[in-house]
Write a structure and sequence with these properties.
This protein is an all-alpha fold. The protein is built from 3 helices and no strands.
């Protein structure tokens, strides 16, 4: 990936919005989205992007909002 490309250009989820629910409501399944994320070459930059924008909801980098909140809390603890 060069500096002019976005991680989104390489994301496994690209073009799947019509077939995968990336923004499930409470108690809706997340497994289909997580399966796609599992082998994604852009998973790390996707997670960094989602963590940098705390308003992100839905499945990002194979993680739920709650899981990402835990990652952020762990990062804050490690930094202190």
């Amino acid at each position: 990936m060069n500096r002019y490309e976005s991680w989104r250009d390489h994301a496994a989820c690209r073009g799947t919005a019509a077939t995968v629910n990336w923004f499930p409501e409470r108690n809706e399944p997340t497994a289909p989205a997580r399966r796609i994320c599992r082998g994604c070459p852009a998973r790390e930059p996707c997670l960094r992007d989602a963590l940098s924008r705390t308003d992100q909801w839905g499945v990002w980098a194979g993680m739920s909002e709650q899981e990402r909140r835990h990652v952020l809390a762990d990062q804050r603890l490690a930094a202190s």
